[in-house]
Design goal:
- By secondary structure, the protein is α/β, with parallel strands linked by helices.
- The strands form two sheets. The chain has a seven-stranded mixed sheet with strand order 3-2-1-4-6-5-7. It has a two-stranded antiparallel sheet with strand order 8-9.
């Protein structure tokens, strides 16, 4: 006779948590017994050497060995190995209350795919979170995540969260480290999963040793992930600012100096404006590369406007535009040489020739960047077709 399927897996990652693991398991087991929820407690062990596995087994928890080190690696393996329809994950350091999981289960039963805990709404007990994390790290990274991706979560890095196992498996989560917490929220938001949050209390952990978390290293890994996963903020917006600002500067200075209050902007400023145009255009191309590759690898959703633009403006139109820019640059260069020739290739007075030279160089450089960028996008298309 086949056993009835489990509704809930309470998942805890573990690496040498002998001091607090038993307390967490007893609380989780107590919740399952009190609530009547058919479930299990699963320990994703990351290679503990302090007897954590024996403690878990003796208390009736199931232990899943995970050879690959890392918070994310342990949880990814644990999610795959879970037997419950729903999974509630939480750290095994006794900082989260496994006896009060009813709000998570209720939201999961209502049909939400991801239920985030919110420690700022539920309460952070004295000493539970370092001031650096409470007032800088978590608020800043959460705000970036909300702005970049439109996520409804008010606490991106809460370690206590529940989810529909199949929905989260469909996200193909890969981050092996602490940035796994951000990856889950970001991908769930991008894939339009139903997300909500419930207040959660955070208590000081019960360990005598320092936590595995390293503030600056892991904070940077979270920030790096958010930037890489949102190329419009990493590449597109800075690129547009540089490109359009540079074009405006060039337009104002190509015909002569410009006054800005007591400042006189001349050919030297024009040179920097030209550099801004080139750097901005390169960043915009990088945004296009990242969006195309990310969408085709299933990392981010398709960008409809970019897809439609590329469908109409393919390799050949791009190359013709690039050729036009390059020829324009050559003509401007020839004009500069003609002015130089008028003084028998001697010393040139004024900055008129330099302005032409800068415009010539900018136009040719943009043409070359556009041509190489178009060819690279064509290569990405070839790779996709081959797959």
């Amino acid at each position: 006779m086949t056993a009835a399927p489990l509704e809930l897996t309470i998942l805890m990652p573990c690496l040498n948590e002998a001091e607090t693991l038993a307390t967490c398991i007893r609380k989780a087991m107590g919740y399952l017994e009190r609530s009547g929820v058919r479930g299990e407690v699963l320990i994703a062990d990351n290679g503990s050497t302090d007897g954590s596995q024996e403690i878990a087994t003796s208390l009736g928890a199931r232990v899943l060995p995970v050879p690959e080190r890392g918070y994310g690696a342990a949880l990814i393996a644990g999610i795959k190995g879970a037997r419950g329809r729903f999974v509630i994950m939480g750290d095994s350091d006794d900082s989260y209350d496994f006896e009060n999981l009813d709000p998570f289960v209720a939201k999961l039963r209502e049909g939400y795919d991801l239920v985030m805990g919110n420690r700022f709404k539920g309460g952070i007990k004295p000493g539970a979170m370092p001031p650096l994390h409470r007032y800088l790290g978590n608020p800043v990274l959460t705000t970036i995540g909300r702005v970049f991706f439109g996520s409804p979560s008010g606490d991106f890095h809460c370690g206590l969260r529940g989810f529909n196992r199949d929905a989260i498996l469909g996200l193909d989560l890969r981050a092996p480290g602490m940035e796994f917490a951000s990856e889950m929220v970001v991908k769930a938001t991008l894939q339009k999963l139903r997300i909500t949050e419930v207040p959660t209390t955070l208590s000081p952990d019960g360990r005598s040793r320092p936590p595995h978390l390293r503030s600056w290293r892991d904070g940077w890994r979270h920030l790096r992930f958010l930037l890489v996963f949102c190329p419009r903020w990493l590449f597109l917006y800075p690129g547009l600012i540089l490109f359009l600002g540079g074009l405006f500067g060039m337009g104002a200075l190509l015909t002569g100096p410009a006054k800005l209050g007591s400042l006189t902007l001349d050919v030297h400023t024009l040179l920097y404006a030209s550099a801004a145009v080139s750097m901005g255009f390169q960043l915009i191309l990088f945004w296009a590369f990242a969006r195309i590759h990310g969408a085709r690898e299933g990392l981010v959703p398709e960008q409809p406007l970019l897809t439609a633009f590329l469908a109409r403006f393919g390799l050949e139109p791009a190359l013709l535009t690039a050729l036009g820019l390059f020829v324009l640059g050559l003509l401007l260069g020839l004009a500069a040489i003609a002015i130089w020739g008028s003084v028998r290739f001697g010393e040139i007075g004024g900055h008129g020739t330099m302005r032409l030279a800068i415009a010539s160089m900018t136009s040719m450089l943009l043409g070359l960047q556009l041509a190489m960028g178009a060819f690279f996008i064509a290569v990405l298309d070839m790779v996709r077709a081959r797959r």
